[in-house]
Amino acid sequence: MNYLNSLWIRFATFANSYLSQYEPLLLVSAPLVALFLASILQSIVCVVHEKGLKATILALFMNTIKLVPGVKSYIDAEKQKVVDKLNSGGKSKRQGWRTELPSVGMGAGVIDIMKDEKRKDVAWQGKCSGTVYIGGSECEGHFSLINEACSMFSHTNPLHLDVFQSVVRFEAEVVAMTAAFLGSKEKSSGGQICGNMTSGGTESIILAVKSSRDYMKAKKGISSPEMIIPESAHSAYDKAAQYFNIKLWRVPVNKEFQADVKAIKRYINRNTVLIVGSAPGFPHGIIDPIEELGELASSYGICLHVDLCLGGFVLPFARRLGYPIPPFDFSIKGVTSASVDVHKYGLAPKGTSVVLYRNHDIRKHQFVAVTEWSGGLYVSPTIAGSRPGGLIAGAWAAMMSLGEEGYSQNTRQIMDVSKRIQKGIKEIPELFIVGRPDMTIVALGSDVLDIFEVNDIMSSKGWHLNALQRPNSIHICVTLQHVPAVEDFLGDLRESVKTVKENPGPINGGLAPIYGAAGRIPDRSMVQDLLVNYMDGTC
C-alpha cells in the first residue's frame, strides 16, 4: 500500500510539473474540444456506415454546391418544371371543384351528379395492372354481391362490439379462414395463429412492424430498434420505419431478384428486431426464400414478417393445383407475422386486409390500451378506432361466396394468363422478363430500347402499367380482368415495341424522360423532394 501511495505521489508531481507550462484555460478547454471533435467524428462514421461512403460524399458535394449563389434557386426551378410535368393538367382539372357546402342540400339528386362524375373516370376494364381484381362488369355478378353486403352493414362499426356482434363475428371468421390456408392447421404453426382486419396492406405491414418492435423490446430490451429488408420489399416498411423511429437497412437482392439471405445476415446486430420476406415481391412477382429467412430469424431470436398481400389468396391454391410453389406460410418455423390483402385476389371490397401473428403474445403488442382518459377505459386493436363494418361484411361475403373451389378456379385462370403473357414476351426479341416470376406479376425490360418509351406508347393505347427501377422495367399484375384481354395486351405490346424501335425518342406528353432521369439522378434526396412536391400538388 505504501508503494502504491508513493507511486501515485510521484505521478501527480510529474503531471503537475509537466502541465504547469500550459495556461489553465487551455487545460480546461482541451478535453471539451476533444470531446466535441470525437462527437463529430462519430457522427461522420455513423452517416458513412448508414449511407455508404459514395452517397455521403455525394450528399456533401451537393449541399456545398447549393451554397453557391443562384445554384439552389436554379435547381429548385428545374425541380418545379418536373413536378409540373408530372402533374400535367392536374391543377386545371381541380378548377371548379367545390370548396364549400351547398347552401341547400341536393337530396337524392346527388346520386345523378355522382353518376355523371363516374362517367369521366378512365376506362379501366381489362387495361390496368392490378387495380381491379374482380372479373366482369361492375354492375353484376360478384361486384353486385359485395356491394349489397357492404350496403347492408354500412352503418356498423366493430368498435361497438356489444352492438354490432354480426360484423365482430365476420371479422373473426375472415381472419380464421385466411389463417387456415396459410398454415394455421399445421402442427408446426403452434396452433395459435391470430390477427385482425385492417384497411389495407400498408396498415397490416405497419401494425406488424409496430408489434415486432414492441415485442422485441419486451423480450430483449431493445430500445434502438433496427429492421432489415430486401430492396424489393414494399415501401410500407419505409413508412413504418419513419412512423416508429426504426432504423431501416435496405439490402440489395441477389441475381434472381430474391432476398439475399447472406447479405441480410451481415446486417443483423443486437438491435435487430425484424427481417422481411415477400411472397411474392411487388416489383417482379418473385417469392423470397422464406424457409431460409425463417431459419435465420429463429437462429437469432428475431421476428420475420412475410408480405403475402399479393400472394395470400393465390399461392395456397396454386400449390394445390400443382404449381411449383416454395413454402411461404406459418408452417415455416421463424415466421412471426404475415400481411394478406383480401381486397386483391380475395376479391373483397377495397379497404380490406388481414394481419396475422404466430401467437397472442406477439399480437398483444399491436393493441393500444388507455387507462387515464376522462372518456373512460379505452382499447383499440388497429390504427383506426372506428372501422367500417360494411367492408368487413363485404370481405366475409366475398370469401363465403367463392369458397375454396371459386378461389381455385380463379387461380387457374390468372396463372394461365400469366404463363401466356410470359410466353408472348419471350417471343418479342427486344424484350426480356425480369427474373423468373412465381405468380401473376410479370416484369419486362429491354437492353436495346427505352422500356419507358414502350410504356408511354402502351399508355397511349389505354394501358396502365407500373414503371419500375433497378433495373428499369415495367410490369403487369394479372387479374381476372385480363382473362379476356390477354391477346389484346400482347398485340399492343408488340406494336409498341415496333413503334419505339422504328421511331426512338420520347413522345409528346410522355413520361419516359422523367422516369429515366429519376433513375439516373445520383442525389436521391432530390428525387425524394420531387415526389413530395408532386404529392403536395395532387391531394
TrEMBL record:
Question: A Gene Ontology biological process annotation?
Answer: carboxylic acid metabolic process
Q: Which InterPro entries match?
A: GrpII_AminoAcid_Decarb, PyrdxlP-dep_de-COase, PyrdxlP-dep_Trfase, PyrdxlP-dep_Trfase_major, PyrdxlP-dep_Trfase_small
Its keywords, alphabetically, are: Endoplasmic reticulum, Lipid metabolism, Lyase, Membrane, Pyridoxal phosphate, Signal-anchor, Sphingolipid metabolism, Transmembrane, Transmembrane helix
The entry's cellular-component GO terms read: endoplasmic reticulum membrane
User: Which organism is this entry from?
Assistant: Cannabis sativa
Point out the signal peptide segment. Answer: none
Question: Which prosthetic group or cofactor does it need?
Answer: pyridoxal 5'-phosphate
Into which family does the record put it?
A: Belongs to the group II decarboxylase family. Sphingosine-1-phosphate lyase subfamily.
Modified positions (N6-(pyridoxal phosphate)lysine) are K344
Q: In which pathway does it act?
A: Lipid metabolism; sphingolipid metabolism; Sphingolipid metabolism
Protein name per its UniProtKB record: Sphingosine-1-phosphate lyase
Q: What is its EC number?
A: 4.1.2.27
